[in-house]
Write a structure and sequence with these properties.
Two copies of one chain form a homodimer. With 157 residues, chain A is an alpha/beta fold. Chain A has five helices and five strands; from the N terminus they run E-H-E-H-E-H-E-H-E-H. In chain A, helix 1 links the parallel strand 1 and strand 2.
């Protein structure tokens, strides 16, 4: 199963990039994970929040394929434990999912249309984190999930 | 008020170190924050969990001073929002706290004696994160707290 972390917003700062690579490399022997960052073309940039969300929606709809299983990361989503993350990833594999997409919305969240398309909606915390840090946290948590599924000593709860 | 993040365990990987510095630098104009990493001397290293927790307790008790306001980061702690973090930090300042300590325990948590000494106990998430990543998350969240208290546009919830 391919796992893709989709994130709207600018490229990573170096320390985030280094950290994401660090965890992807550790996960690679078990499962490939990639980060896909998406930015609106500069000519579409606007300070109008509604318009921005709409444009991000169009960008995402063009990218979403029927073989994607979409998990939206959202502050209002379900607060899962690391073990539950692992179980959910296992279930996706059991269902024969081709590509699991973990979507981090833009600065103002995603549109209702995208929310409706999501198969699940998860929250990392009641705290607000910057989008770049969320990418790093997801990279680590995917690695942790596979550690749990493979009984690796990395995770001891 | 001094803010110190205390963390038991080895020194940071470079990407964590870079990230922690990044946020400390941004927080500096408002309030100083430092990271204090603590390791048991090698001669005390053991695979006995109870013994390790006891030795870490001794190390922490030697370091704790009456002017410290101790907040323990623990999976079983309170799940606060970023706004509640900011309010709590403000309250610490209002009480005239000299040094606020955010303590990340060792790999197996802290002893009951240390738990009893903590003024508050907070949890970041229901997920388990590695200790190094917790340092980075704390550095960001302290910066976010001061952004909230200073009405900086960094935080928009």
């Amino acid at each position: 199963m391919n796992i893709e972390i989709w994130s709207i917003g600018k490229e990573n700062d170096k320390f985030i990039d280094d950290g994401v690579r660090h965890y992807f490399k550790k996960t690679q022997p078990w499962n490939p994970v990639t980060l896909v960052t998406m930015q609106l073309p500069k000519k579409l940039a606007t300070t109008d929040i509604t318009r921005t969300k709409q444009q991000e929606e169009e960008m995402l709809l063009k990218k979403l394929q029927p073989h994607h299983y979409l998990i939206l990361m959202d502050e209002k989503g379900k607060l899962l434990t690391s073990e539950q993350w692992a179980q959910n990833i296992q279930q996706c594999m059991n269902m024969g999912t081709k590509t699991l997409v973990l979507l981090i919305g833009g600065a103002y969240g995603v549109s209702d249309t995208i929310k409706a398309k999501a198969n699940q909606c998860w929250s990392l915390s009641k705290l607000v984190f910057p989008h770049q840090l969320v990418r790093l946290i997801l990279a680590e948590q995917v690695y942790r999930s596979f550690s749990i599924l493979n009984n690796s000593p990395y995770h001891h709860s």
